[in-house]
Amino acid sequence: MNIFLSWIQKYVNSFYHLIPYGLKTSSIKSLDLTLECDEIWSFVNNKENPVYVWLALDRNTPLIVGVYIGDRSRASAEELWKSLPLKYQINAQIYADFWRSYYDVIPTEQHHPSAKSAGQTNHIEGFNNTLRQRCWEHPIFATTGGDQFPAS
């Protein structure tokens, strides 16, 4: 099956916009909201085309409450922030690694930079490890260039 970068992006975006934006957080109390944020990367076609999946996981539920697919820039970190329900943007304590974009986007009083060895991002790191094991190591896409739709 041949799938190409521009087709993948159009395909993902077509579904992304169909997903209801408002995560139902009414049953989640505003007190003691804790997020773990991280990004995982893979590439399309070759390693010169990296794609990053930015994730925010609620440590207490554990729901993925924010996601963005893009590069590893400040703009992508901002899009992850915008994907969070307002309740989390206002009240959550957020643990992430020392990547500069997190410092630029997450308010200082909420941001808790944390080394992996500190254990504050164990849940999101474990989730990303599961993705690596189940998805990234078993590629389902073969790309060779040009715009084509997948073979049936």
Notes on the protein architecture:
- The protein is of the alpha/beta class.
- 32% of the residues lie in helices and 22% in strands.
- The chain has helices spanning 5-16, 74-83, 86-91, 100-105, 122-136; strands at 34-43, 50-58, 64-70, 93-96, 111-113.
- It has a five-stranded mixed sheet with strand order 3-2-1-4-5, with helices on both faces.
- It starts with a helix and ends in a 16-residue tail after the last helix.
What's the total number of strands? 5
Strand-residue proportion: 15-25%
Mean pLDDT score, rounded? 80
What percent of the residues sit in helical stretches (DSSP H or I)? Answer: 25-40%
The profile of the biggest β sheet is:
5 strands, mixed
Tell me the number of helical segments per DSSP (H or I, 4 or more residues long). Answer: 5
Instruction: Compute the separation of the termini in Å.
Output: 8 Å
Q: Please compute the radius of gyration using only Cα atoms.
A: 17 Å
Model regions low in confidence, pLDDT < 50 over at least 5 residues: 138-152
Helix and strand pattern: HEEEHHEHEH
For the largest beta sheet, what order do the strands appear in spatially? 3-2-1-4-5
User: What structural class should be given to the helix and strand makeup?
Assistant: alpha/beta
* Principal-axes shape call: globular
List keywords for this structure.
152 residues, alpha/beta, 5-stranded mixed β-sheet, 5 helices, globular, disordered C terminus
Offer a quick outline of the entry.
The protein contains five helices and five strands. It has 152 residues and is an alpha/beta fold.
